[in-house]
From TrEMBL:
Gene Ontology BP, a term: glutaminyl-tRNA aminoacylation
Sample GO molecular function, one term: ATP binding
Motif ('HIGH' region): 43-53
Name of the molecule in the record: Glutamine--tRNA ligase
Domain Glutamyl/glutaminyl-tRNA synthetase class Ib catalytic: 36-345
Motif 'KMSKS' region, residue numbers: 277-281
Any one GO cellular component localisation term in the record: cytosol
Gene field: glnS
EC number: 6.1.1.18
Keywords attached to this entry: Aminoacyl-tRNA synthetase, ATP-binding, Cytoplasm, Ligase, Nucleotide-binding, Protein biosynthesis
Family statement: Belongs to the class-I aminoacyl-tRNA synthetase family.
SUPFAM superfamilies: Nucleotidylyl transferase, Ribosomal protein L25-like
């Protein structure tokens, strides 16, 4: 598709709305921004990205793709106290996994520190910035409130020559942290609190992961962000709605500095999911207190956690498209995200059988040592997935919940004296049970009808149901983890104590499961539908062919109502 074709494409695709596509199409038609679309994704490298960031990634990179433009990746690394190379590496991996490629090299705000420092001197020389010796607490006190104006610092009218000399001394490490800062000189009575002489540089006597010990002063996010956009020639600086009140400051700085271009900031509503937290501070607490097993725990809403859970890049992009882009905030039902992955895996995940809670079944009229290798389609609707081998033997495993000695007519599984079909195999009839000293059933004895492969019993009776199974001698043992939502309350961020909202059933570990032999040999991150059980993925790190470890991605259908009921019991 040519750039012109992209510009003529519909402003909105099937799914959620996207007002920014409409706006940009109108701008291109009128010649704004010289007809260019240059966006950027500017994460702070102070934690792992989460599902909300995925929406921003899809938006910024997606708009550039849609209009034949470019999207840059820039790390806004202005705070050496919280940043780490680990986060930089994970963010790049997340973007690639989602299927996007940034324009040019990775960029860093720290690469512009020299230019930003010169910009600060420009403001000082113009009388538009001053060195303030109020403490951080005093600055907050002088700032005022949303209903009361702030008051001027006693250092606000300091001579620019003195401010410049002091700022240079700050940069040379001659001041301790907290003893001075550089503030823009705007309007302490402004109704927008962000314009009340904001701090644009503060002292940090700490090494930076990119610049080492070169700097003792670091720019604020608000000061560095817009100027970095301008240096990079960004046309559309797309932020979430909480930055709307910061836009006047963004524009003021652009207007008063000799920047090479004039980007424009646009805001959209961030994506919030119920039963989910996306605060980096709170997510870090879960990691630090070992509530979860790291940033990529499959219960975490981080992109790396979602990936390890088994979600696909396509499902995340489709979810973001369904949610759409708007100016009005709100909360998205987590069930929509689960729907996106079910819809994907229903079409693209091969089938397999796995018994999570095994009960041995002995087919008494089956010859000892005899193995019959049956076959089943890899996918019921996709010939390209071929067939899989199902060795059937005298001893097999079924789920414990699939057998009862007695049951009412609504129970459609194996019952003493009743028939049931083994999935993709024969009809069996339960004859007897073996119990241990505690009275627990440890073995079920059955007979099979050799004339029922692919047909009903010869006597015309129909089995009550179909159950899955795995050979006890040819199947492979596996470890299977069943994950569910980490929180059992709809808005965990509102809980007085974060941990009070945790779902006690968010992880169940099944050891000694039995899985089809072919399924045990798949590569890590292979997704399968365990028939009658759910969608699962071979763990990204722990799974190895022959030593299978699987995580549940999602149930076959929404079972959250059952979880809530169990939690309230």
């Amino acid at each position: 598709m040519s750039n012109n074709d992209a510009h003529d494409a519909p402003a909105e695709k099937t799914g959620g709305t996207n007002f920014l596509r409409t706006l940009i199409a109108e701008q291109i038609a009128s010649g704004e921004h010289r007809g260019e679309v240059v966006t950027r994704f500017p994460p702070e490298p102070n934690g792992y990205l989460h599902i909300g960031h995925a929406a921003s990634i899809c938006l910024n990179f997606g708009l550039a793709e849609h209009f034949g433009g470019r999207c840059r990746l820039r790390f806004d690394d202005t705070n050496p106290d919280a940043e780490d190379q680990e986060y930089i590496d994970s963010i790049q991996a997340d973007i690639h996994w989602l299927g996007f490629e940034w324009d040019g090299e990775v960029r860093y705000t720290s690469s512009y520190f020299d230019t930003l420092y010169d910009y600060a001197l420009t403001l000082i020389d113009a009388g538009l910035a001053y060195v303030d010796e109020l403490s951080p607490e005093q600055i907050r006190e002088y700032r005022g409130t949303l209903t009361e104006p702030g008051k001027n610092s006693p250092y606000r009218d300091r001579d620019p020559v003195e401010s410049r000399a002091m700022f240079e001394a700050m940069a040379n490490g001659e001041y301790a942290e907290g003893t001075a800062s550089l503030r823009a000189k705007i309007d302490m009575a402004s109704g927008n609190i962000n314009l009340r002489d904001p701090v644009i540089y503060r002292i940090r006597n700490k090494a930076h992961h990119q610049t080492g010990n070169k700097w003792c002063v670091y720019p604020s996010y608000d000061f560095a962000h817009g100027q970095s956009d301008a240096i990079e020639g960004v046309t559309h600086s797309i932020c979430t709605l909480e930055f709307e009140d910061h836009r006047p400051l963004y524009n003021w700085l652009i207007e008063h500095l000799p920047v090479p271009s004039h980007p424009v900031q646009y805001e959209f509503a961030r994506v919030n999911l119920n039963y989910t937290i996306t605060s980096k501070r709170k997510l870090r607490r879960l990691v630090d207190e070992n509530i979860v097993d790291g940033w990529d725990d499959p219960r975490m809403p981080t992109i790396s956690g979602i990936r390890r859970r088994g979600y696909t890049p396509e499902s995340i992009r489709n979810f973001c498209e369904m949610v759409g882009v708007s100016r009005s905030g709100g909360t998205v039902d987590a069930a929509l995200l689960e729907h996106a992955i079910r819809d994907d895996l229903n079409t693209n995940a091969a089938r397999a059988m796995c018994v999570l809670d095994p009960l041995k079944v002995v087919i008494t009229n089956w010859e000892e040592g005899h193995v019959e290798t049956l076959t089943a389609p890899g996918h019921p609707n996709r010939d390209d997935m071929g067939e899989r081998r199902l060795p059937l033997t005298r001893e097999i495993y079924i789920e414990k919940e699939d057998f009862r000695e007695e049951a009412n007519k609504k129970y459609k599984r194996l019952v003493l004296g009743k028939k049931v079909r083994l999935r993709n195999a024969y009809v069996i009839e339960a004859q007897d049970v073996v119990k241990n000293d505690a009275g627990e059933i440890v073995e079920v004895h059955c007979t099979y009808d050799p004339d029922t492969l692919g047909a009903n019993p010869a006597d015309g009776s129909k089995p009550k149901g179909v159950i899955h199974w795995v050979s006890a001698t040819h199947g492979k043992q596996a470890l299977v983890r069943v994950y569910d939502r980490l929180f059992s309350v709809e808005n965990p961020a509102r809980e007085e104590e974060l941990l009070d909202g945790l779902n006690p059933f968010s992880l169940t570990v099944h050891r000694g499961c039995w899985i089809e032999p072919d399924a045990a040999e798949v590569a890590p991150e292979t997704r399968l539908q365990f028939e009658r059980t759910g969608y699962f993925v071979a763990d990204r790190y722990e799974h190895a062919p022959g030593a299978p470890v699987f995580n549940r991605v999602v149930a076959l259908r929404d079972t959250w109502a059952k979880i809530e009921a169990r939690g309230n019991a």
